[in-house]
Structures
1.
Amino acid sequence: MARSKVENVGILAMEVYFPSQYVDQSELEKFDGASAGKYTIGFGQTKMAFCTDREDINSICLTVLHRFIEKNNINLHDIGRLEVGTETIIDKSKSVKTFLMTLFAKVGATDIEGIDTTNACYGGTAALFNAINWVESSSWDGRKAIVIAGDIAVYGKGPARPTGGAGAVAMLIGPDAPLVFDCGVRASYMCHAYDFYKPDLASEFPYVDGKLSIQCYLSALDNCYNLFCKKMRTIDPDFKGLLSMDGLLFHTPYCKLVQKSLARVSFNDFLNTPVNEREKQFPGLSQFNKCVREDTYFDRDVEKAFMTYSKDLFEEKTKPSLYLATNIGNMYTPSLYGGLVSYLVSKSPDQLIGKKFGLFSYGSGLASTMYSINICKDMTVGSKLEKLINSLHENMSWLDKRTCIKPQQFSDLMQVRTENYHTAPYVPSSPIEPLFDGTYYLVNIDDQRRRFYDRKV
Ligand code: ACO
């Protein structure tokens, strides 16, 4: 295939999948004996999607990919790379990507690079960067890449359980895209932390140090944001951080943490402003002049003051990105991309043309990056943007077709998953009827622990 000049590399199309069943967070509060408002106000969560034992990481990625290919009429011979980002590990060797190859095998398409990438919620971003880098590299052969980010986020009984979720996002990557990545400004912060990790391979649940995970998330944000601004100013000396971006999107463990994160960005802007200029931009906040960034992760006064200061900025630049997160929960690797979808459907294509937004990706352990996307001003890609957004609106309509499951039944279904996580041979007990049409499901696991799937039609 002939190589052509690569310009405007980015996202050409997207698709989201979330399970057909959810539990209502206010009902879960009552069931768990938590105080009324803890999950809905304290976390900012409305509904939590979950999978029964009929779905696993392979099935949800097959579901989103099959729908994506069908809806966008993708010629599988035009795909040269397929990447999966996930932290839902059910096989220490065989990648999810290899299961997805069953769809390509039907048309004899096997010349496809890429495998799985893992580090907590960051794997989707790493997979996306791999795909972008490939299209921009000397290895590129002119075909497009597909990136899948998918996870089933489940916690054992306790305070973390209401911050679960499940879903998958598919993205088509190539040149002349409506959503274009800024070059040379990705800002990463990576280090070692035991904030959230999954060392018990016989269990689906992570080990979590909740408070440490919040501190790690916020410190990663501080580092990424400040470095990102520095890098942006090398290509745009007038870049003013948050104020120069139309949207700022975050990995969303739960919505309230994202609101606090936007406030944290404003606090960083405050600290980065010369003291004698602060009063003009941040009136009434001079009492925080002597604050040391690293000492303030759990400083209530700082948090409250900057949440108040950034309220309108949050409403304008970030809140539109939280729609899927509040209705699904933390999808882990797809979480940030669910934020992108939510942001895009909150506006008309005309309102989006020429806009810039920042994205903050965080995966415990820890790996994090802030980067930026521009909506291409070139009107020749306008129809691609419209098609992308129309397709996402169709995705969103599935939210209302879901079934609400009572907390007791949810808890029982979680128990079935927990008890059988490592069982083989195994035939799932949950019914197929509640699944959306087009959903892949686990038929059985045989005595060699091989998994077999079918698709509900
Ligand atoms: N009405 C309104 N708000 C309430 C109520 C109520 N009735 N009850 C409690 N709240 C508020 C609390 O004041 C608190 O607010 P704050 O965050 O402003 O302090 C909030 O609800 C949460 O209450 P906590 O008591 O702090 O919650 P808890 O300690 O039980 O658990 C945690 C929170 C640590 C996030 C836990 O759910 C967890 O471990 N989750 C998984 C880890 C996680 O998501 N980490 C984030 C980054 S890493 C990642 O992405 C996985």
2.
Amino acid sequence: MNSSKAYSAATEKSPLASTTIPRRDPGEHDVQIEILFCGICHSDLHSVRNEWSEFMPTVYPIVPGHEIVGRVTKVGSAVTKYKPGDRVGVGCLVDSDRTCPNCQAGLENFCPNLTLTFNSPDKHLGGVTYGGYSDSIVVDERFVLSVPSNLDLAGAAPLLCAGITTYSPMRHWGVTKGKKVGVVGLGGLGHMGVKFARALGAHVVVFTTSPHKTEDALRLGAHEVVVSRDANAMQKHAGSFDFILDAVSAEHDVNAYINLLRLDGNLTLVGAPAKPLAVSAFSLIMGRRNLSGSNIGGLPETQEMLNFCGEHNITSDVEVIPIQKVNEAYERLLKSDVKYRFAIDLASLKSE
Ligand code: NAP
Ligand code: ZN
């Protein structure tokens, strides 16, 4: 067994602090990775603070982080896809049952027995899995992704969650040239949603509660920006959207956006506020509108998304921070003060 430097939280009220965690020796199908960057997803914060206690209670200590990129340092004897030195990524999943219909279809993200990168039972070491706020990780090669060589590694890290979570529903619901697409919430997920919708050829409208993000939204690829607190500006778009991606992390009025859908339009929730959202039947029935959800993506589609990013030169706009600033970053995340994803430089763990 190896040990790895990491940052963990001991309780839902504790800050993240330096610790040491065990990592297994690589088995025959395993890849050992030196983690170089890890994005900070709002899901990390929800989990550290046990905000999803009803659905997935947090086991402490927790080491979050599921937007991992790094270099392969060692591979097991049966590994065929990777060799030491390769640039790789690990997202939200590190295992699944591999036999259920969803796994067979490459939709491991919907496997009933999936192992999340952190806070899932660890089949190898007991306890729970530990995520990417650490300097190394060992993962079965099936759950390791290849990062295109032209992509900046810090900017590529958020693709592993924010990227696939926004790419997958857009592909599923047919976002293409000529479609009018809304993105609600210009945070980590939202800014990736804007980049993908634009790259897929759609007409893109950002809805934000932060007027100061207008210029950035346009720079990121939006054709139009609506400050969602402006009722008149909202009304101008009533009944016009083919697809809306809702990436808001907190309680909000989802009906205000459902009302903007055209006949048969679709609003997909990817944001995961802890409390249920109230949905007006009238918003849905007046226009045969659809409300759906989506959770990250399967392994084949995650690789497809990374390759798409390689071809289109798409990365996340990141603010790189040392791990010692992680608690401050969480407070800024709560104030929607991030442009547009924090990426932890794990070299900073060396001084711990
Ligand atoms: P984030 O970077 O914090 O962005 C969230 C954005 O939501 C903020 O920047 C803000 O955008 C908007 N917002 C925040 N509070 C709001 C409020 N009270 N009312 C209206 N808008 C508000 O978070 P993220 O990492 O992108 O994650 C977003 C959500 O998706 C989280 O709940 C996360 O857990 C979830 N998630 C889901 C999946 C999945 O697979 N489904 C994967 C990853 C994350 P503006 O300033 O533009 O208004
Ligand atoms: Zn995430």
